[in-house]
Each structure stands twice: as C-alpha cells, then as structure tokens.
Design brief:
182 residues; five-stranded mixed barrel; 1 helix; globular
C-alpha cells in the first residue's frame, strides 16, 4: 500500500518544465513509500508494433521514491502485478549531449516478472532531442553515450528533482558525481 508522504510545487527557474508536464505550471513531485520500479540503470528493448514505446528491464524496490503522479498501490491486471516506475536519488552519472534516443520511464506502468519478482518490465516512451541527458553509471568510457537504449532523464530534470528532494525529510538526495563534466 502506498503512503503519500510529501508533495511540493516547484517552479523551475530556467523556464524548463519536466518532461510529461504541460504548460508553464510548476512541476508537482510526490514522495511516496511503497513498492515501485526503479529504472535509472535499465536497458530497454523495442516492443514489436510500437514505434514510440520500449520495454525497459527495471528492478523492483520497496521504500521511498519520487514521481510526478500521485502515489499508486500495486494493481493486479490480466498481464500480472502492475507497479509504477519512480525516481530514487542518483549517486553518479555521465552527461550525453548527442541526439540518440532514450526512454523516459518516470511514472510509467510496469509489470512485475512472475518468475523473478525482483524485476519488472516497464513500458516507457522513447524521446530524443530534449537536450543533454544522463546515463546513470559508476564508470564512464567512450561508449557510454553511444551504445544501447537506456532509461534516462535530461540533466535539467535530474537536477530539478534533486533540488526538490533537498526539501524532503524522507528521501534525501546524494551528492552526485558527474563522471564527464562538460
């Protein structure tokens, strides 16, 4: 069961609004406690017949997480147990400034793997040309930003949610190490 812990309206001073938000209204983040999918290091694969959506292999976690949508409990569907992909603070990332596509999994629906309940397949929209984006990793080399399709976020979005978490008592951010500062 989800427990809503904290919601805050955050105005992005640069005028950029998080992906998934519309208009010029503030982004509303919600910190929840419960079961969620964590996709920050998830590799993604195409879904047959769906050009703009990929399936990302995410981990199932329990605890505090953040997202733009209201807290949601697990739901049993015909496909299996459905949970939502949410954000947990990052420790390090690489900045990618190319035009490669990536998956925006925040608040995406995920189906828990019956044979391995620590994993979930999340259906995430594919995006590109949103500005510099992050690849969550502990190491960086020349192929980090040029291979694979990964769940990601723009640098602006990662910084915005990190700034929000600095105001939250239940889910504090880490000091983020940028592996290839621009």
């Amino acid at each position: 069961m989800w427990k809503m812990v904290y919601t805050l309206a955050l105005v992005v001073l640069s005028g950029t609004v998080l992906s998934g938000c519309t208009g010029e209204s503030p982004a509303d983040f919600t910190v929840c406690e419960g079961v969620y999918a964590l996709c920050t290091t998830a590799p993604c694969q195409p879904i047959a017949g769906k050009e703009d959506t990929v399936s990302c292999d995410c981990t199932v976690q329990t605890g505090y997480s953040a997202g733009l949508e209201a807290c949601k409990a697990e739901v049993v569907t015909a496909q299996g147990k459905q949970i939502v992909s949410r954000y947990y603070p990052l420790k390090s990332y690489a900045i990618c400034s190319n035009d490669r596509p990536w998956a925006n999994c925040l608040d995406s629906p995920c189906i828990v793997d019956d044979s391995n309940p620590s994993r979930a397949a999340c259906a995430c929209p594919v995006v590109k040309n949103q500005g510099p984006y992050v690849i969550v990793t502990e190491t960086y080399d020349a192929s980090t930003c040029t291979t694979g399709l990964w769940s990601s976020a723009t640098v602006t979005d990662a910084n915005t949610i990190t700034d929000f978490l600095k105001t939250n008592d239940n889910l504090k951010p880490f000091d983020i190490k940028v592996l290839n500062p621009e």
